[in-house]
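Appendix C: a fully annotated inverse folding record. The material below is reproduced so that readers can follow the format used throughout the book. The structure is listed first as tokens, followed by the designed sequence.
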């Protein structure tokens, strides 16, 4: 999974996540929730920011991914609360977290509006949601991007992971995901008073930051 991420993005996914961590601006003692946290990249970085007085909860709906992430965190000396949970029904009290993050996971959620409302609910007033996700690339790059997505990605997936179909789905799911402006509007409808959008890689990826007022 991590190798495919490196190959697909040319290693850029690491820079996108580092930028997300920087924008999150977590401080010692803060509480953060990482949704669809998978192998734990954001949870690891957040835990180092909040320190021993803070709390980072690492979650995913996929138990196998969550186990891999948990084991990696433990190997690095980080023992974090870990929970299998559905983003559309978060098992946490209202107003508990300073930050909520979801990196490359919102796209796969069936009812995105419900999930966004749940993320808003568990944030304290003034807290931030960070959504890092594939988005709509700038028009001049679209033709080359489509060719790469539908011709190169499935072949690399087959060679490296023995799974071309998942990477065809990835390309299709990106096209079905709301564009930057639509997702911004959805976040506002979910209860976020202010939403900023930071495009990266020509809009192929976008970071949406929602502030709960």
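Designed amino acids, in order:
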């Amino acid at each position: 999974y991590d190798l495919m991420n490196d190959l697909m993005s040319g290693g850029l996914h690491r820079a996108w996540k580092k930028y997300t961590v920087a924008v999150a601006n977590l401080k010692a003692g803060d509480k953060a929730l990482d949704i669809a946290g998978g192998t734990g990249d954001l949870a690891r970085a957040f835990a180092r920011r909040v320190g021993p007085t803070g709390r980072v909860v690492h979650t995913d709906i996929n138990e196998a991914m969550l186990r891999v992430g948990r084991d990696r965190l433990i190997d690095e000396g980080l023992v974090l609360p870990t929970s299998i949970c559905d983003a559309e029904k978060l098992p946490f009290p209202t107003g508990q977290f300073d930050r909520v993050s979801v990196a490359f996971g919102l796209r796969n959620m069936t009812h995105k509006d419900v999930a966004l409302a749940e993320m808003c609910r568990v944030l304290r007033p003034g807290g931030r949601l960070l959504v890092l996700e594939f988005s709509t690339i700038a028009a001049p790059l679209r033709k080359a991007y489509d060719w790469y997505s539908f011709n190169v990605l499935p072949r690399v997936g087959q060679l490296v992971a023995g799974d071309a179909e998942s990477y065809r789905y990835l390309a299709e799911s990106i096209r079905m995901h709301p564009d930057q402006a639509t997702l911004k509007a959805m976040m506002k409808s979910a209860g976020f008073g202010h939403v900023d959008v930071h495009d990266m890689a020509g809009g192929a990826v976008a970071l949406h930051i929602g502030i709960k007022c």
